DNA sequence: ACGTTCTGTCATCGT
DNA sequence: TCACGATGACAGAAC
């Protein structure tokens, strides 16, 4: 780029200050406003002094451009915004201001966008580092199988031997039971399923489907009044139907009472008896304090209702308790509970599911279980753990959704903020361009060549040197130097 | 009757 | 190898 024309260029001495602050421009010109030729044959402007100020009265004057952002190139007018930038000024011969402005905008905005993007990115990373759940960012697992493979597998599950087995055992749609031990247990427990006509459905949270007389057990359907013992004491965390049922039931310490008789004269003591409350020995560490406290000595119905109402009902509510007429609604046992009941599993489901593996194995060694019982116990343990895992999984999934929704809201707010800043920047830039245009017009109106003719904006451009001097450079020279 | 939601279950994978 | 947790997918029940 040629900063000065080889021919008749005109030098102006301009003490420029950063454009975003006060622009004090001193044009040193001869008193008669006629440029003087310097040693290089350039027109040198003397003495003329005037201050051009870009005031801060605009509505967007508070916008502070980052000091590291590149100088605003003014295209054909070629005036740097700040002397701190010694970058050679662009000297295009473009006279179309709009085009020139577009060019300048494209040079400026990326820097601003980069800055904004960097801040955004930093904020995001900073945020991610402290709050973002790593799980959320985990890549989605690759598909386990293709669609066709899945279809094939499903078909096999529905029509294969397992499916046939299921079809023979249940009335419901068969499921693909491909597990080894599970297949065995399924087969072994099929009699239970068959008897209970359960169709393999989960009845844990469902009203009783079977007739009041449970075919499987051969005893009347378990209700809250006739089921006195709890072998499945669940935690309070999932207090749904399941939790209510869990509260309804209560556990016995099978180790303290290993000889508890099973009412159906099975080979093993069982935890599914129809029992008398007087025989109950609640296990304190398995019961919530409130249930435990009010449990002893209460009539079974009262106890059941109290336990049924459980958590949300305070202690004082007991004083207003009125025993409802009629039988309380029957609380169904889950499929596994009924299976365990049918096979006379001698320990509670709670222990089957929640005991550590070592304790669980030790528990199994204390009893002589049949293969069917063993398989059922292991199935119950597997299903029970998986049920809790599924609940946790769904809880986490919901939490992730909530979290991501929050993240989305924040990102949208940041996007809107950046859009507003961009609009403000463009508005400010337009103001600056407008004022510079006026400034140019005023400067050129003051300039005269040797013959007293004014310089034309179309013919000359202003070029600033690193030391702040500004020269009038013919645009033809600028074009030639490109 | 149909769609949605909830829940249990199974299969599978990774640790 | 086994136990276990996580998770997608499926199915039934409930609404």
Automatic annotation (TrEMBL):
One Gene Ontology term of the molecular function aspect: RNA polymerase II cis-regulatory region sequence-specific DNA binding
Biased composition (Low complexity): 198-214
Sequence segments annotated as region (Disordered): 154-219
Span of domain BZIP: 376-439
Key words of the record: Activator, DNA-binding, Nucleus, Transcription, Transcription regulation
GO CC terms, sorted: nucleus
Alphabetical list of CDD domains matching this protein: bZIP_NFE2-like
Pfam families xrefs: bZIP_Maf
Superkingdom as given in the UniProt entry: Eukaryota
Coiled coil segments of this chain: none
Family: Belongs to the bZIP family. CNC subfamily.
Name of the protein: Nuclear factor, erythroid 2
Organism of derivation: Hucho hucho (huchen)
Taxonomic lineage from the root: Eukaryota, Metazoa, Chordata, Craniata, Vertebrata
């Amino acid at each position: 780029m040629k900063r000065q024309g080889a021919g008749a260029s005109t030098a102006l001495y301009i003490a420029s200050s950063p454009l975003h602050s006060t622009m004090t421009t001193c044009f040193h010109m001869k008193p008669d406003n006629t440029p003087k030729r310097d040693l290089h044959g350039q027109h040198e402007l003397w003495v003329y002094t005037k201050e051009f100020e870009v005031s801060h009265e605009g509505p967007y004057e508070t916008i502070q451009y980052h000091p590291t952002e590149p100088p605003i190139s003014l295209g054909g007018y070629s005036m740097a915004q700040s002397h701190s930038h010694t970058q050679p000024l662009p000297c295009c011969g473009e006279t179309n201001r709009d085009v020139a402005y577009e060019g300048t905008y494209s040079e400026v905005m990326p820097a601003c966008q980069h800055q904004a993007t960097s801040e955004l990115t930093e904020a995001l990373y900073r945020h991610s580092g402290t709050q973002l759940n790593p799980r959320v960012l985990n890549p989605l697992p690759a598909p386990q199988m293709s669609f066709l493979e899945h279809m094939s597998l499903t078909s096999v599950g529905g029509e294969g031997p397992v499916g046939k087995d299921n079809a023979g055992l249940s009335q419901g749609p068969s499921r693909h039971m491909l597990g080894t031990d599970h297949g065995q247990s399924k087969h072994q427990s099929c009699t239970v399923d068959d008897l209970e006509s359960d169709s393999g459905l989960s009845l844990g949270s469902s009203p009783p489907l079977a007739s009041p007389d449970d075919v499987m057990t051969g005893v009347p359907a378990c209700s809250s009044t006739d089921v006195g013992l709890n072998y499945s004491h669940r935690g309070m965390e999932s207090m749904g139907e399941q939790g209510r049922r869990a509260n309804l039931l209560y556990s016995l310490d099978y180790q303290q009472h290993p000889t508890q008789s099973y009412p159906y004269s099975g080979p093993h003591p069982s935890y599914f008896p129809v029992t008398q409350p007087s025989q109950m020995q609640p296990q304190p560490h398995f019961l919530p304090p409130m249930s435990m406290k009010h449990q002893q000595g209460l009539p079974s119905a009262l106890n059941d209702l109290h336990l049924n109402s459980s958590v949300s009902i305070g202690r004082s509510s007991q004083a207003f308790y009125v025993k409802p007429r009629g039988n309380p609604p029957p609380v169904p046992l889950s499929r596994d509970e009924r299976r365990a009941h049918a096979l006379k599993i001698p320990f509670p489901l709670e222990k089957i599911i929640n005991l550590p593996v070592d304790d669980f194995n030790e528990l199994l060694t204390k009893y002589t279980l049949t293969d069917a019982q063993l398989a059922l116990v292991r199935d119950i343990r597997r299903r029970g753990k998986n049920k809790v895992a599924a609940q946790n999984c769904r809880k986490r999934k919901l939490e992730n959704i909530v979290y991501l929704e929050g993240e989305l809201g924040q990102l949208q707010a940041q996007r809107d903020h950046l859009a507003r800043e961009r609009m403000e920047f463009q508005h400010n830039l337009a103001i600056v361009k407008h004022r510079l245009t006026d400034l140019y017009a005023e400067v050129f109106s003051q300039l005269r060549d040797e013959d007293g003719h004014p310089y034309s904006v179309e013919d000359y451009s202003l070029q600033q040197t690193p030391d702040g001097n500004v020269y009038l450079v013919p645009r033809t020279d600028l074009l030639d130097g490109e």
